[in-house]
Amino acid sequence: MSAKDTISRLLRCRAVLEKLKLLGMVKVYSDNLAAAVGVSAALVRKDFSIFGLTGHRRGGYRIDDLLSQLNRILGRDQPLKVLIVGCGKIGTALMNYRGFGTQGVRIIAGFDVDPEKINPNAVPPVYPMDDFERVMNAEQIRVAILATPENTAAHVAERMIMAGIRGILNFAPIPLKGGPSCLVQNIDIALELENLYYFVRLGEAT
Amino acid sequence: MSAKDTISRLLRCRAVLEKLKLLGMVKVYSDNLAAAVGVSAALVRKDFSIFGLTGHRRGGYRIDDLLSQLNRILGRDQPLKVLIVGCGKIGTALMNYRGFGTQGVRIIAGFDVDPEKINPNAVPPVYPMDDFERVMNAEQIRVAILATPENTAAHVAERMIMAGIRGILNFAPIPLKGGPSCLVQNIDIALELENLYYFVRLGEAT
Ligand SMILES: NC(=O)c1ccc[n+]([C@@H]2O[C@H](COP(=O)([O-])OP(=O)(O)OC[C@H]3O[C@@H](n4cnc5c(N)ncnc54)[C@H](O)[C@@H]3O)[C@@H](O)[C@H]2O)c1
Ligand SMILES: NC(=O)c1ccc[n+]([C@@H]2O[C@H](COP(=O)([O-])OP(=O)(O)OC[C@H]3O[C@@H](n4cnc5c(N)ncnc54)[C@H](O)[C@@H]3O)[C@@H](O)[C@H]2O)c1
In which residue ranges of chain B is CATH 3.40.50.720 found? Predict the structure, then answer.
């Protein structure tokens, strides 16, 4: 299990705990938490012990305690401010998604090269690509989503990294590599479908 | 590395080889292929040896040979037919994506409960949810994308599985678990951003 997997599990735990808290719950057992996160209780307890998360196993964990410990570890003091480059189908779906707000993610602005997409008065605003560096610095943003066509992706990523972006979520179907100063997480939806198909077929064959 | 990672790399290799072929190339060295896929050449060679993919290392691999071997292993004889449940922001972006065609993925139809979204004459057509089982069986489809709101996801997944769906790509931000008869791949975009932020902050702290 990589560090990314461990952090993903802790992030999922936090999202589940926030929902349980909204429902009025005060305590949770590791088995219940694990089931909601979709992993084994042993793995949750292992993750917790790596980060020194404590609770009274017999009586369960206090949700408030766990949340404040997780927020200290994962950082939650400030909203995660993100820029989007490419305001087409995927970019627009992300810009209009209200669900980000509940998870502390704020899309600050979108950028595009198509004049028809530019609208500085929209919420969030869509600016021309020329404004990217200015807005990034003014808002001190370090993470961006890349949602431009495949043949522009490497060029756009390079521009992001030169400007000072340190984390890119890439939707273009080519695996971009970051560098010493920038992490890239690739999401390839077609590849996920092909992968799913392979294992479905494998299951049918056996 | 899990089996899924290995298959993902082979799928990426195939996508890269198809693009190289379109450019008129006939041979490729494992180093070049590895760079395009975003992994080390040693890993590509290891994957190839697991599946018995051969080539003359000194002269590189013949692209046509590799492609026919990969298509035999990964299956490419028929298009991957997929249904989408939930034709909102994400669902619509996926239904209108021309890029799936080049990777052999065909969105056969969408389904929704909102009468305003229903349009059997659209391409692809959008049907009421009541028609899901009928279309799934008529087209013999085994994989579906779930793009409905979070609070409906578990119910929609259950219905898919009962109908006979064996693979679900889930965009709702709750981790769905499949079962013995159905694989689920969860894509949580907000979680990916939070994860990216954690490691960007970690990099800045050290
Ligand atoms: N739509 C999907 O469902 C889907 C699925 C899988 C992968 N993808 C990938 O996601 C990316 C975005 O897809 P989409 O369907 O939203 O595409 P799209 O064509 O609808 O939108 C792309 C946007 O990027 C803008 N753009 C082009 N060059 C630019 C540049 N240099 N700088 C800034 N903006 C630029 C375009 O003007 C356009 O608005 C593509 O790489 C695509 O392959 C999309
Ligand atoms: N839009 C994004 O960028 C984004 C990002 C991350 C996660 N998600 C997640 O993806 C899912 C889809 O998001 P969206 O933004 O497209 O939502 P949306 O509200 O725009 O679309 C959801 C669609 O599902 C339909 N629907 C509701 N209940 C249904 C049911 N029982 N059966 C069939 N259809 C039903 C609705 O009528 C609507 O058309 C949500 O779970 C959301 O949390 C979306």
Answer: 80-191
Nearest C-alpha in B relative to A154: B36
Measured between beta carbons, which residues in chain A are less than 8 angstroms from residue B150?
A: 99
Within chain B, which residue ranges are assigned CATH 1.10.10.10?
Answer: 3-72
A38 and B175 within 8 Å at the Cβ level: the answer is yes
Residue B160 makes CB contacts below 8 A (sequence gap 6+) with B85, B132, B144, B146, B168, B182
Q: Which positions in chain B touch A189 (Cβ < 8 Å)?
A: 94, 169, 187
Distance A159 CA to ligand 1 centre (A): 16
Return the CATH architecture of domain A80-191.
Answer: 3-Layer(aba) Sandwich (3.40)
**What mean pLDDT is reported for chain B?**
92
Q: What dotted CATH number matches A3-72?
A: 1.10.10.10
Cis check: omega of the bond before B79, within 30 degrees of 0: no
DSSP A122-137: SSS-EEEGGGHHHHHH
Question: How do residues B110-139 score in pLDDT, each as one tens digit?
Answer: 999 999 999 999 999 999 999 999 999 999
